[in-house]
Amino acid sequence: MATILIIFSTTDGHTRRICARIQSHLEAAQHEVTVVDVEQIGDLDLLAHDKLVIGASIRYGKHSKAIRRFVTERYAELGERPNAFFTVNVVARKPNKNTPETNPYIQKFLEQVPWKPDHLGVFAGVINYALYGPVDRTMIRFIMWMTKGPTDPSANVEFTNWQTVDEFAQHVEAM
Q1: Dist CA 5 CA 111 (whole Å)
Q2: Could you tell me if 56 and 87 are in contact, meaning their C-beta atoms sit under 8 angstroms apart?
């Protein structure tokens, strides 16, 4: 049994759902899993865990400042344990942008931070217009129109391939 820490940053809650799926998989394999929002991490001892996973969503082409700051400040600790990083973004709904090698957001993030994760994952997110305020709804609809995504303001479309999430969890288990 390993102790695994999953740290996440989410905009509308979907990254937290993905973390819960990974947690469920790992706990079913008898691992002890703690899931913490990066905004609540404080000075939590990362090295008290055997494995570390970080998941972060994208909004308007960027990961949260909190996740970038956390990784930049604590990358040395992250590197002392087997570790993994995944990103959640709607661009990953496209087959040519759904891997760590082809997703522009994970590539950009890795260029901006000193941390070099052992394992990477990319998961497509959700468009749920009912959750967005008027400005975000308009902006996201415009972006979706430009990228040939759903623009119906009542749409709630989940693009996540849960099998890919399960495969990522299996890899974390095997690290």
Answers
A1: 24
A2: yes
Beta strands in 60-162 (DSSP E): 62-63, 83-89, 119-124, 126-128, 156-158
- As a whole-number percent, the residues of the chain with pLDDT over 90 amount to 76
Closest CA to 18 of 5, 6, 30: 6
Q: Look at residue 49 and tell me whether its pLDDT is greater than 90.
A: yes
Alpha-carbon gap, residue 123 to 86, rounded angstroms: 7
Cα dihedral value 81, 37, 130, 158, nearest 10: 20
Gyration radius of the chain over CA positions: 16
Distances in Å between the Cα of 83 and the Cα atoms of 59, 118, 120 are 24, 5, 9
